[in-house]
Amino acid sequence: MNLPLDNLIAEAERCVVCGLCLPHCPTYRKTGSEADSPRGRIQLMRAVAQNTLPNNPRFKAHIDLCLSCRSCESACPNSVNYGALIDATRALYTPNSSNWRSLAKPFIRSRFLAKLLIWPLWLLQQFRLKKLLLRIIPPAKLLPKLSAPQRWKTCHPTAEPLKGNVSLFLGCAGSALDSQTLNDSIYLLNKLGYNVHIPKRQTCCGSIARQMGDADEAQSLISKNAACFNPNYPILTTVSGCGAGLKDYLNTHTILDISAFLANCDWQHVKISPLHQTLYVQDPCSLRNVLQSHKDTYRLLQKIPEIDIQALPGNSQCCGGAGAYTLTQPAMANALLQDKLDSMTEQQVTLLATSNIGCSLHISQGLRAQNMHIDVCHPVQIITRQIKLYERN
Ligand code: SF4
Ligand code: SF4
User: What's the pTM value of the predicted model, to 2 decimals?
Assistant: First the structure.
C-alpha cells in the first residue's frame, strides 16, 4: 500500500509513543539511538512530512538503516502500520539512486536478462574461476553453488487423484539461485494431488524496488503479476520475502508461503524416512511478521518421523539479510549476522532450515567466511530429501 502524504501523517499520528516496540527493534538494540528506533523514525517521518524538520542526509541515514523487518509492527499495541509508513517515506523522501540500483534494474525487470546473467556466473563456478568471478562482481561472494539456469514448464500436472490447482511464484533470486527448492515444491505438490501452474509472464515481486523507494517500478511489477496469475488459484511462494511483498500489495490473489499450504495438505499416503538429527529453524522476519505463518514451517517439518526440531535462539531478531540491505548497510548487516552465527555455535547447529533465500544467502556467506560447516536448506528441501530416501530404500 502506498500512503498519500495526508495518510502518512495520519498513520504516524496513531503512534502513541509508548515505546513498547523499542526492545524489538534490531537497529535500536545495536545503536541505542532513539532515531534508529521505530518510535523515533515515526516521529522523524511525521516531522519531515509536516515540514517541521528538513529532509536532509541525517534523516535519510536513519531511514536507510531500517531493515523493514517489521518486528515493531508485531509488537505495537496500537497496530501502527509501520510497513506502509516506511514504504511511503522511502518513495516520497529517500529514494535510493545508487549506481548498482540502476545496474540491477533491467535484471529485476526481465527474467530473460536475469537468466542471461546467471549463465556466465554458473560457468565461472563450474570451471572453478572463483577469484576471477569475485574480481568482476564482488557481491558474488554471496552466491551459493549455482545450478544451471532452468526453463520452467507452464504446467506440471499431478499423476495422483486431483485435489486442486495452485500457482507457483518463482521469484528472481529463488529461480536464479535456488531452483532445487522450486523443483522440490513441484514434486511435493504433484505428490499431494495438485496441478502446479507457473505463468511465463510472472516477474519480480517488487520488494527490492520498494525498498529502494521506487514505488512506480514496484507497482508496475505488481500489476504485471496481477495480470498473469489466475486469481482462482492460490499463489505459493518459496521465498518469504517475495510472499510478504505480494501479500501487502497484490490484493486480488491469495498468497501463501509454501510450508503453510503443504502443512495443511493430506499426507496420509506419503511415506517419509525418519531423520535422526536435530534440525534448527530460523524464522525469517517476512514469514514471522508479515505472512505470520512461521509456525507452519514447524508443522510441516514435524511430518518427518523422529525429527528433533528446535527454534534457533534469537529468532525474533532479523539476521540482516533483508533484501538489498547486505549491500547498502554492510556494517549493520554483519553485526546482526554475527548474532546468528554465535547462536548457531552455542547450539552446535549442524542443519538449519530457513524459508527465505535472502536469509539463506546472508547466513551461508557468513558461515563460509568463518569456516563453519552447517547445512542451510529450505524446509521443502529437507522433507523432499527424506521422502526420496524412503523411496530409494
Ligand atoms: S509500539 Fe506502536 S504506538 Fe508504541 S511507540 Fe511503537 S509504534 Fe508507537
Ligand atoms: S522495521 Fe525493524 S529495523 Fe525498522 S524500525 Fe521496525 S523493528 Fe526497527
Answer: 0.90
Ligand 1 test: best mutation among 27, 71, 79, 80, most atoms within 8 Å of CB?
A: 80
Q: Cell 494431488: give the residue.
A: 193
C-beta atoms surrounding 254 within 10 Å: 15
Sorted by where each begins, the domain ranges of the chain are 5-92, 99-142, 155-263, 278-392
Ligand 1 pocket mutation pick from 69, 76, 82 by most atoms within 8 angstroms of CB = 76
Is beta strand 194-197 parallel, antiparallel or unpaired with respect to 164-169? Answer: parallel
**How far away, in angstroms, is 108 Cα from ligand 1 center?**
34
142 touches 361 (CB < 8 A): yes
Name 156's bridge partners.
196
Q: Is 45 in the pocket of ligand 1 (CB under 6 A)?
A: no
**Candidate CATH numbers 3.30.1370, 3.40.1440, 3.30.1490, 3.40.50; the one for domain 155-263:** 3.40.50
In this structure, of 114-118, 164-168, 382-386, the range with the lowest mean pLDDT score is 114-118
User: Does residue 45's CB lie within 6 angstroms of at least one atom of ligand 2?
Assistant: no
CATH code reported for the domain at 5-92: 1.10.1060.10
pLDDT in tens, 285-344: 999 999 999 999 999 999 999 999 999 999 999 999 988 899 899 999 999 999 999 999
Of 333, 334, 86, 335, nearest to 212 (Cα)? 86
Tell me, yes or no, if the two domains 155-263 and 278-392 fold the same way.
Answer: yes
Q: Nearest C-alpha to atom 8 of ligand 2 is from which residue?
A: 25
